[in-house]
Write a structure and sequence with these properties.
alpha+beta, five-stranded antiparallel β-sheet, 13% strand, elongated
């Protein structure tokens, strides 16, 4: 427990002591997670400092560091937004960007051995492309895909949604099942638009072009735009990364929690998606990312501290409230790999 000045609070801190007015009316109870609006109100009421819990040490593992990912996203955005339908030569620079992402991943020790904390986020189309690129490259490394094809996969991922620039349908934070018949027909054309813009370019491989055209096809023929079931394994890798990332960022899909998106993939293994490839993705994707608040089967509320290697659904958790709803006043960490009778029932938004 420590004293923190109101001016230095960022939001997300946990109150260690109840905040009261001079006449002992409770403003905020012990254990409250401070939101920015709470902090502003406390400041308006003349409260200058509060007691907060010591910071919880959360070990979050990301595929790309925040600043690195932002730099790649800004580069992709800059290149693609300069592009016009009949002038695609400038896109060749994305070939270098794909190689830079591959090299960045290869520089990390044990890159294919880790479990990563992938989180739901905004529906920024350029961030979406970077995320798919990193996921597909990581999966390809684990599956020992040849290096030249990994390059083509990276290029295809960065360009896979180029065709979205040519449609007027609003697709962010919206499930395509809610589209009108006309909107759905237009949306489903975006792989063709992207492929058509690049089909005559010689600097981009046929595999990268196939990724752009077929990234929404499914094993059972229910995909689009061609309902093709015969697609290369490299395209299947991108297809699974695409569908997973759409679920967690809300592009053409209602945004889901990570564990919900994972369940969706599991439910559609060997139906929509190649089950072998799905299993590879699930090997390194944390079901409950570090920092998630969770409810256990014993009624305890905790926070995920870090992951257990090779066990993406059995993390270390710190118990914050016991089964009676009482605030835990000491460090109470459980390793779900050894606490085999404890399970996470669900993820909760706030505590």
């Amino acid at each position: 427990m420590r004293i923190q000045k109101i001016a230095d609070l960022n939001g997300g801190e946990i109150l260690a002591k109840t905040v009261m007015t001079p006449d002992y009316k409770i403003l905020l109870s012990e254990g409250t997670k401070l939101r920015k609006e709470y902090i502003e109100k406390l400041g308006e009421l003349g409260i200058r400092e509060v007691f907060v819990e010591d910071e919880i040490s959360i070990h979050e593992v990301k595929i790309l560091k925040d600043e690195t990912g932002k730099n790649f996203k800004d580069k992709v955005k800059e290149i693609i937004e300069k592009h016009t339908y009949r002038h695609s030569k400038e896109l060749v620079e994305l070939s270098k960007t794909a190689d830079n992402i591959i090299n960045n991943l290869l520089e990390e020790e044990e890159v294919i051995e880790r479990i990563y904390d992938i989180k739901e986020r905004s529906s920024d189309i350029y961030e979406h492309s970077i995320n798919i690129c990193t996921l597909a490259i990581l999966m390809s490394l684990k599956m020992k895909i040849p290096q030249n094809k990994i390059h083509d996969i990276g290029v295809g991922c960065l360009l896979h949604d180029l065709g979205l620039r040519y449609i007027t349908v609003e697709y962010t934070n919206k499930d395509i099942r809610e589209f009108s018949e006309m909107e759905l027909a237009e949306y489903k054309k975006h792989p063709i638009y992207g492929y058509s813009a690049l089909k005559n370019e010689t600097w981009i491989s046929e595999l990268s072009k196939d990724i752009i055209l077929y990234h929404h096809e499914n094993m059972d023929g229910s995909g689009y735009p061609l309902k093709s079931v015969y697609i290369p394994i490299e395209v299947k890798i991108v297809n699974i990364c695409e569908q997973f990332d759409e679920m967690i960022c809300g592009i053409g899909h209602r945004r889901l929690k990570i564990f919900e998106a994972i369940q969706n993939l599991k439910s559609n293994k060997d139906i929509l998606f190649d089950g072998t490839i799905v299993d590879v993705l699930l090997e390194f994707t944390a079901v409950y990312p570090a920092g998630s608040y969770i409810l256990t089967n014993e009624g305890e509320i905790g926070i995920v501290l870090r992951q257990n290697k090779n066990n993406p659904d059995r993390p270390f958790i710190k118990i914050i409230y016991d089964k009676r709803g009482n605030r835990v006043q000491y460090d109470f960490v459980k390793d779900l790999l050894t606490e085999q009778n404890i399970f996470i029932e669900k993820v909760i938004e706030n505590i």
